[in-house]
Amino acid sequence: MNEQSVSLLAHLNEQQRAAVEPGRGVFLVRAGAGSGKTRVITRRIAHLIAHHKAEPSSIVALTFTNKAANEMKERVAQLAQTTTTPAIGTFHAYCLRLLKTNRHLLALPDFTIMDEDDRDKLIQKIVSAAGFNKQISSNAVSHALSNAKNQSATGSINFSLIDHPVIQDLCMTYEKERKLAHCLDFDDLLIETIALFKNNPSFRTSYQSFVRHVLVDEYQDTNLVQHALLRFMTCDNQGIFALDSLCVVGDEDQSIYSWRGATVHNILEFSKDFPQTVSLVIEQNYRSVQPILSLANEVINNNASRLPKNLWSERKGKDRIRLVKMASDRHEADLVARLTSFLKKFHPGESCAVLYRSHHQSRSLEEALLRHSLSYKIIGGIQFYERQEVKDLLAYLRLAVNPYDRVSFSRIYNAPTRGLGAKFEELFFEVWSQEPLLPFNAIAQKLIDSGAIAGAKKNSLVAFCELFSFIAKNNPTPTAALELIVQKTEYLSYLSNAFDKSIALEKIENVRELASAVQAAEDRGCTSLEAFLNEVALVQDHASKADRDDGLQLQLMTYHAAKGLEFDTVVLAGLEDGLFPTARSLDIPASFEEERRLLYVGITRARERLLMTHAQQRYVFGRVTQQIASRFIEELPKALAPHEDGSQWAPFNTDRFLETWLTGNTSSFSNPSSLPQAPKFTRSSFTWDAEPFKLSKERKENLDHQGYTPSRATSTFTTPPNTPLGPKASSSWRPFQTVQHKSFGVGVIKEIEEKSGGVINLTIHFSCGIKKINASFVSPHQK
Hints:
Structural class: alpha/beta
Number of domains: 5
Number of strands: 21
Oligomer: single chain
Radius of gyration: 29 Å
Helix content: 40-55%
CATH architecture of the largest domain: 3-Layer(aba) Sandwich
């Protein structure tokens, strides 16, 4: 072994060396979190060149992001010490390279790449031309098309995977138009490369005589198409492995992207497609102290869809983990803010991150941090009050308070879409510039009276103005005003139709969180729109200064955004059933296991210490709800994660807990009976009805009685079909209704699902957890 080969193996542990050294064979390397997998894959490439005399041009290494590919290139260049570099890149970039160099073998040899914007415009054109632009969103078509293509492992698209017949036809039309334009979209790059290998046996043979070693990073993130492509790249026309080596590196315990097509089974069933596979595992972690890894092992061992692996570390430590129950989401957020302050004091220079399941959870955290004058940064997202849907609705509220607000009017006159386009805006502001002292509704009236605006545009403008006239006349509370705006503009339907389902759901959750913020402000005494907007303005002003450097900047992000990152201290917030795990995952075993993998990812981001929190009460959809601790908490041994009951803590007690924990005092100090009582939520007299933002019967009657009758034809403001807004209420049951079950006792209805044949299933919070039960087995609770 030459000197370079020896140096490449230096400082590798035994398991890492086992993955780096072999020159021939098929290897599945299951590398746990923080185990140095990037070091392994880059040193394996360099070792193939230095020790096994592989030509750099005969090596292909694939990964998922340009950032990861560039990092791999740099490391390999430093290690290999050769002027020729292997082909290292993303799946899509490498496929494009193959297609370009073999154009003569393609059905569309003179193809160009259609970017996402061009693809979206073509789909919009097709949907509109077919006359379905009001019934079917272009985003729904785009999503269905991508799903179908990402499951097309044979090199051709199986349109039967698209359930909706109209969307299926629209997708087929898109494909015809795309081919006529001689274009490929990004999904096509992989499909066409599979077709290249499949339809050209001589090319496949030639390719495999040139490329002898293939490596793939982050294999748990691959989808069916990528796995199929790897088989075509490495196996001959009879399906027999034909290269010198194949090495895929990944971790099934970190497979968290099924929503974009990734499947954990590509790792779990890898040896079925490659029978000669040698399975290797790398378990030594170089990131975290042992107690954190022990907790991660305990959690993930509850998953059935995994292979044995047990992380360990030489870094010892004790008293590094706490699980704390707080009275409310506001108290939970205050705990995080106080933790940040104490970290700056006791551990200056260290990093800290708060992870949450959904973006909408950042709102209460942001407000608490700003109240404490602490800086923060949101990773993979934007500040709550800067999100499009939140800014839209705030603009409605601002215009209701100030009808001279041109900025707010410009933002919302056509949001949701009312058929009032750029020409309308130009005309409107031209007239407004001539009459600058008039409010917007007076300008609208002038345009209508002059006949400059007529027909459907006139009806839309009248309905828009009537909404604000009604608010001005009746002076509703901020909560009622927001509810009215969301209902009468059909804003939730707009979000559902304008965005992919997952994005729409996230935006709808942000709208609901805004409702919670409004209700919370009312409970604090902000009973007028102006008072609430002033409070928001102060929050936004503080947030604009949040990037200042004050020694420790807290980072806020979702669990998904945290993948690949690490921090000295990690907070896992909102560990409650319905939040994490999500309500949608509870009845689907595969989804529930992915939620657990997501928790595992969150735990293993922590280097030194881990704080997990949950709240007894939380503002949800604008009202206070009793929360149930996440069922994952039952999987956390108290010996590893001591449980603290902070539900009765006053600020002094919170500070005392944090100081004793962060300074290394291992004793548990809490004695709830002797602590001051924390303030409780006060319930507003305003209540939400069965559906979020649907007017309660009493309030709707009051509003109708007061004369709100929009000119524009409106629906009854129920949830549009096939949207992610939750189930409709039946005449007998309603969300948040208290019910009685013979075995489980008293519970609260969270969701209602109406099946065919009149069958109704209820998702109910009991003290023992969340249960889905046929409605015939429960009865209304008699208080």
